[in-house]
Amino acid sequence: MAIYLDFEEPIKELKEQLEKTRELSEKDQIKGDISSRTKELEGLIEETTKEIFTNLTPWQRVQLSRHPERPYTLSYIEAITDGNFVELHGDRTVKDDKAMVGGFGMIGDQSVMLIGQQKGVNTKMRQFRNFGMANPEGYRKALRLMKLAEKFNKPVVTFIDTPGAFPGLEAEERGQGEAIARNLFEMINLRVPIICIIIGEGASGGALGIGIGDRVLMLENTWYSVISPESCSSILWRSWDYKKEASSALKLTSEDMLSNGLIDGIINKPLGGAHTDPDAIFGIVKKEIQAHLGKLMKTKADKRIDQRIKKFSAMGVFEGKK
Amino acid sequence: MGWFKRIKEGITTPSQEKREIPEGNWYKCPECNHVLTSLEHAQNYWVCPSCQHHERIGAGEYFALLFDEGKFRELAVNLTSGDPLEFVDTKKYTDRVNSSMEKTGLRDAIRCASGTIHGEKVVIAAMDFRFIGGSMGSVVGEKIARAIDYAIKNKCPFICISKSGGARMMEAGFSLMQMAKTSAKLTQLSNAGLPYISFLTDPTTGGVTASFAMLGDLNIAEPKALIGFAGPRVVKETIGKDLPEGFQRSEFVLEHGFLDLIVERKDLKDKLALIFKMLS
What we know:
The complex is a heterodimer. Chain A is α/β, with parallel strands linked by helices. Helices cover 47% and strands 15% of the residues of chain A. In chain A, strands 1, 2, 3, 4, 5, 6, 7 and 8 form an eight-stranded mixed sheet that branches. Chain B folds into two domains: 1-55, no CATH class; 57-279, 2-enoyl-CoA Hydratase, Chain A, domain 1, CATH 3.90.226. At the A-B interface, helix 7, helix 8, helix 9, helix 10 and helix 11 of A face strand 4, helix 5, helix 6, helix 7 and helix 8 of B. Strand 9 of chain A pairs antiparallel with strand 4 of chain B.
């Protein structure tokens, strides 16, 4: 059974009608030709889908970014590399963080270091993956793998999908803040190309911890901001009920982030969200990575780093002498 | 079983009503209730002589404390917040900024200045918690960036005194990217071979901890400062248990390996001078 979000109700109803019509016809309870009726319904479904998905509110996009049927990092990696992927584990200090995955994979003829937060596909796996919330060792594992890629001159691609870095007691003891800070510092100076793609949720420092790249791209229906709409609501409105207002105020959609110059591009998805046609989105993402890598790998490392520093240094809006 | 049950714990007078001593004349330590004149308190570096509680102080106080004869040249004075997102929650962001400016006389949550410590040139960026919780938005990021540029140009050490709740929500994505921006500038300082001392004071949390505050060549903290990524309330909610005594305080953070040393305010200037001498 497909899962529908609240604002997708009209689509769900139409699809159920269509199914029912077909069912009844098979059982001979409707006499005659149903093709005109099914055609009409199919047309309506397409129209309604288009209408809903071209007018999405920021909060609806946040909901889509968390859709339980969305593909997660390992599905992207598996599809993009045609299964030519070797997962590598551990930060060499504390443990292997299951919320952060990574390893070498082949994209066409190019060997690439692929890294990302991983969410679980069912209740048991969600716990195993800690809901995609990495501990410090996750960020340190990611950094270890990036350094490995640098050593062998392989580009890095990161997939960002996290509700935040894990705010646990042990995470604090082991220096969550230091781990993220270290990654920012090291990624700025990494001598190989870095592409970062937000494939779901991009929450705050937990996302940015693997988010410093020559190209930072967002899939269409994802979000990226300094805080989740729920937490923003609870802090600024002192209530959990203003998540819709908060999602609008935060300007966290891909379009807003692009128009504010905080990301480099948007990857458009098939109508209806990534979960409706994963294979199509895998193909699009693969092409995007190849196109960007092609350009980035022609640039010299020093120049690339210089451009990276300039790009992030230029971010910010203030009044006063430039 | 007793006959009586104390339903309300302790004395319940709100603290505002309790404070009958006119402000400005006397200081009462919130930790040990020791009372002294405000002048004595200031002369003791705003530290309680009885329990060593380090009261939160502003950027100006740190400048007075550290720069020789209290003399300094302020950098990038005129920068103030824009409102790139036209952010409105229960209040307009621009109103928050304006009322903070009026209340504190500050332009934003940080001041940067150059001057000398025991005759040696340094650049200091000092955050101020009174301005929207010392939160980091575009102005804080840009001022740190310019202070670092100034340090590189003048080949002198850079000190950042952190005191912040983290990134400023009202500038959302822009605030988040100040973490990247400040870290990027610090790589330039590092590549120029210049020292960066991160001085963490109460409180230093969120996006500030997860960027420049934890990136010092030396990370130094004031005693008992709250230092962490997630705030204690969030951690408590996550684990569903009470937090251990001293959790996320300087001494705890040092024990876990993320601070080089803890320095009392009165010793700070001499200690910094000594460290710079050893590094040069």
